[in-house]
Protein 1
Amino acid sequence: MKTIYTILLALGFYFSVQSQVDPVKNDVGRFNRPTTSQRAEVSQKIGLNFIKINYGRPNVKKRKIFGGLLQYGKIWRLGADYQTVIDFQNEYVIKGDTIPKGEYALYAVPNKENWTVYFNKDTKGWGQYTYKPENNVYEFNFPVEKAPEFTETFTIGFSNTSLNNSELFVQWENTRVKIPITISTKHRKEIEKNYAAALGLNERALGYKYYLASEYLFLEDKNYEKALTYIQKAIDSGVSAFYTHFLKGEILLAMGDKKAAVASAIKAKENLWKGFSNPEWENKIEKAINNWGK
């Protein structure tokens, strides 16, 4: 009896460990061997913080995936093995819905023309086998695209990334789905607060910070008047490098003042650092001088 009790206790401990341990870090049951669908992590900084995804990567293996292995209209864990988990390290927006900072399990229902993607609050389960629809907190629909190339290994990644925006893509076999992500209003205010605080500091590098703030306002906010004010402050404070004058030219061009934009590009050329060899910048400035005035 004691022997049976000991075996049951050991089995209970084993299954308890299996249900709680991340197989990637402590693969007790598999003796830390490589898995059939290897785990992967991908991350991208958007705004101030990162979005990170941990997921399993199955292979096609000559199978028909969508409409075959993965039936249309059926829930899928968006990967393999245990949950595909996305970690939002700040607040982000997807299709008008503001998603708070935190971790979510990702699920999808693939269809021929579109996918329904769910953000689920249960991040500790084992794929669709423990999926409960009542744990879904967000639901989105995205159109299906033909992948630019055949993809043997299931892939999640980021593309078309700028300071505040990106597209999360899911790609496998000949299918690709893109999820547009942008920072929230709250997140944007954090950025504004950060550069406002930095610009209030009385320090030697203040001029360069005005340049960085101007670049952000120009690229992301399209606030050209304020961007022009800040870049002029950077130049007036002594940061009179080629890149500050070139940015000033880009801002003036966006505001419709071509003549002043060309003058700034010429100033950028005059302020190239002596001994500085960077064909990319040299060509960029020369091209601007030739084209901006047309």
Protein 2
Amino acid sequence: MDIDTKCIPLGHIQTYFDLRRALIPDANWLEKRSQHVMHNPHEILEAIIGIDQHDFYRNAGIDYRPGDSGVFISVRQVLALVDQAVRALDMPYLGLAMGNLMTITHHGMAGMAAVSQPTLRGCLETVARFCTELFPPLEMYGRVDVEEASFCIEQTMVLAPYTHFFLELNMVSFYNIFTHLTGGEHPLTSVDFSYPEPAWGHIYRRYFKCPVNFGMAETRLVGPPSLADYEMPLANRLMAMSAEKTLFENIPTRAIRLLPLRLRRLLVRYYGAFPSLEAAASDLGMSGRTLRRRLADEGTTYQRELDAVRQKMAMDYFARGGASVTELSLLLGFADSSAFAKAFRRWTGLSPTEYQEQQRHGGEGLLLQQAVLAVESGVVE
């Protein structure tokens, strides 16, 4: 799977951008809701509500006709939609503002199916499952241990230059929904982001009423472990089943059938002790020969998918402040640091040292764009 694979239901992406369902046509309300003073709120409001749908989709190379529910789009096309919105509003932090506008209702049947689960654990498991189907470039998962519970979001492929947008939107939206469902009686411990603080980092603290940390190991919402068993106030098993049935009747999906995506998710779980092709095939319920053939049918190979996972893990390691090339080489299963350095230059066009140096000097956006160029050139799918 690459950035041109059409596996994202347009119907799902429309929940991001069709804010007319959630917006009250009043500039003062919008300013208060977004918690940002606008130079010309009337003009911005018009831009949000009045972007011509036909032009919006056409500019992203999407052939869309109202009422057509079977359209799938690629990551590249999603990024083109985000780019139009960010440029029209001149708001690099648009993900925060849009996420703050997205209520349970705005998430439609997906939101209803999630919040009507018996417990918060079940709610988050449902959200994670929907994410796999509706927006495969992101992966969501929950984790509970003795000291804390967390809900994590990470990208399974490069979303540059708008990585922040997708993480901001989902983190703010889920944070607000959690606060609403618990009546604000169970504050989270922290909200963590896996990337360095952006230029608009101070705006994050207007949206989250708990500590906000950047440069952390994962992007996640963190709270006490007891939250996992918190009983959902809207729990209704029949409603949950009905909502999910309606969701997938109206928004067809195809991500779960994409073998390269399934393989990448499998490899991520092995971190540092990657399986052989034969072992991975067994985990996926097929023979090594079948896996090799089916990957070839998708235009890729086991090694290319493994390299894609290694590249992402390497960038995550450096983004979190890791500096030891030797340590990272071992974590990623390379024979030595020189083998890793050679692979890293093939992925990004830079040596690990050059990459870290540019990152220290604020070159994150440039570096991510270089990663996209590597993907587009066919080095990494």
Protein 3
Amino acid sequence: MAELYGVETKRVNEAVSNNPEKFPEGYIWELTNEEWDSLRSKISTLKNSGRGQHSKYPPKAFTEKGLYMLATILKSPKAVETTIAIVEAYAKLKELSRVIVEVPQHEDKSTEQQVLLHRGGQLVEGIMSDMLPKQSSETSFELNLAMFKLKHSVKRESDEEIKHLRAKLAELEKKMGQ
């Protein structure tokens, strides 16, 4: 975890020790000595690297919720970046839930309903975009609730394709400017 968030292991341990109220049951647990011994015996690289071999305390294991909470406490750039991403995703999910509730309140195929469906698709795309691979692919999201259906396709271009398209656009802009 320390490596993931760009801090020393002792900073992770300090964060947990100094903020026990932020790690309720289901957020973090400490491996028992038996679990730690079993894990060490299965990971030969641990013995060869010297990392964790003579550790004073068994390691802590974090659930996904614990990882997010840890990100909010640590002060490294990566932890701050993770916290911001979590807050942004949460805000988008809240807005998406409001959109989903509002869609059935409008007449089928009305302009208002179409605008809401489009906004819902944008929100889903925004939430999923960081998780999708950066290669050329097309992904469709389809949400079928009893009263309405939301379908939105997302196409992500590879970095090379994006550079190529930007070059073409610059060429066109140059020609248009002449």
